[in-house]
Fold this sequence. Notes:
The protein has strands at 2-9, 19-24, 31-37, 43-47, 61-67, 74-77, 83-84, 89-96. By secondary structure, the protein is mainly β. It is globular, with a radius of gyration of 13 Å.
Amino acid sequence: MRLTGRVVDDPGRPLADLTVRAYDKDIVFDDELGTTTTGADGTFRIDFTELQYTMSARDPDLYIRIFDSSGDKLLFSSESEIRRTKTIEEHYDVAIPRSMLS
């Protein structure tokens, strides 16, 4: 399976070098599916397998978190909008206000 996306600021300029982490939401603890960095064009891609998110035959409940380039400051989370997916690829388009970037 694959997560792709693009991260821009609120005027629409690509945001490079941000840390993107993907998770599968669970009752006890969330499984981290992968981490990557946005490219110069703001895009990212995280590939993962079924073994990373479950021991049973269920689909992942996906969300992402985006952090600054140090990986410390949380800039965005889609945890309140879990995507329950059966698709091979899930795409996120994210706009982060410039005020969050300083």
